[in-house]
């Protein structure tokens, strides 16, 4: 069981880290997978997604990281200490500081894989005045199929504990509003997170969001984009043929 999750997580990491895709270069981005209620695997700090191997993954205890979300603030040294203390094997590498939000997202119902990166075209928009527009609107059917009817938008904040707080706050508001888990979370001036039940769901959301970003920028240059109305979005979202396509794509 653990072996197939490990293989899937390495596959997801390599797919995100392919340099030709421009989703992540060097040590950018990270990925994680749920092993059980108690434990998950996450990329170690400073390792490269494109060439990730099993030894670059750290098994962490969720119960050691989730309580950090209840803390108002912690020093960088305290966060580092908590990250190290969350390791199941104390000889393992240090988990990424973003392991805190991975722990939270993997605790959501039905979520088993999470991928995060600094995708070039998505960040082109997230670093612009139109970041929120890109998160809340949809432009074409496949964007809805792979990325959901809307994305969570998180205003810029300090990476680490503060960002994990903000992600939880905005995700809870999204679930209240939409009555379902998000597929995509967009962090202003930072990057994208995709979450899902399978590694395919995560890579599909990341690739489609990156394509949507290219379309958004091109459409903006031509005086657009023209967004779907809420009715159009709902219609695509509820169609049985789109649900069939989602199952076929394992997303
Ligand atoms: Zn990041």
What does the main sheet amount to? 7 strands, mixed
Q: How much of the sequence is in beta strands? A: 5-15%
Radius of gyration from the alpha-carbon trace, in angstroms: 17 Å
Number of helices: 11
> How would you classify the helix and strand content by structural class?
alpha+beta
* Proportion of residues in helical segments: 40-55%
Work out the number of β strands: 7
Our measurement of the CA-to-CA distance between the termini, rounded to an integer number of angstroms, reads 20 Å
Shape label? globular
Q: Report strand order across the widest sheet.
A: 3-2-1-4-7-6-5
Overall pLDDT:
95
The low-pLDDT segments are none
- Which cofactor or ligand species appear? zinc ion
Helix and strand succession? HEEEHHHEHHHEHEEHHH
Task: Provide an overview of this structure.
The protein is an alpha+beta fold and 251 residues long. 46% of the residues lie in helices and 13% in strands. The chain has helices at residues 2-17, 62-65, 76-85, 99-106, 120-126, 131-136, 141-147, 161-178, 199-221, 230-237, 240-248, and strands at 30-34, 39-43, 57-61, 113-117, 152-154, 184-187, 191-196. The protein has a 7-stranded mixed β-sheet, sandwiched between helices. Helix 7 (141-147) packs antiparallel against helix 9. The structure holds zinc ion. Residues 98, 116, 118, 190-191 line the site of zinc ion.
